[in-house]
Design brief:
By secondary structure, this protein is an alpha+beta fold. Helix content is 36%, strand content 40%. It has two helices and four strands. A four-stranded mixed β-sheet has the order 1-3-4-2.
């Protein structure tokens, strides 16, 4: 399965369009990670705990997108867009949404 942010796959012809599909992941943050992240925010630097959670959410959203495309008979998803949101009371959850167009290419 080819996943790309571009509207086409160079050198390959799109033969069928299956429509827009999405994959989502919503990840909760736990209290210990929040405490260490707030310390990192105060003293500066990167928050490894949140970066790992963000990578995990992105991976899940793209995997879900790929699985939905495969169920439609697609072998690629083009025009992928990734969106990130903080949701829930006091921003306690991270949502990653991936959307794109499922297609069949030669």
């Amino acid at each position: 399965m080819i996943l790309t942010t571009t509207p086409s796959v160079e050198g390959r012809k799109i033969t069928s369009y299956f429509g827009v599909i999405t994959g989502e992941a919503i990840m909760g943050a736990n209290i210990m990670r929040d405490i260490f992240a707030s310390i990192t925010d105060v003293i500066g630097g990167r928050s490894g705990a949140y970066e790992e959670k963000l990578q995990e959410a992105r991976h899940i959203a793209l995997k879900e997108l790929e699985e939905r495309a495969a169920r439609l008979g697609a072998n690629a998803v083009v025009g992928i867009d990734l969106d990130y949101e903080v949701i829930g009371q006091s921003g306690s959850m991270l949502m990653v949404s991936a959307s794109g167009t499922a297609v069949r290419i030669e």
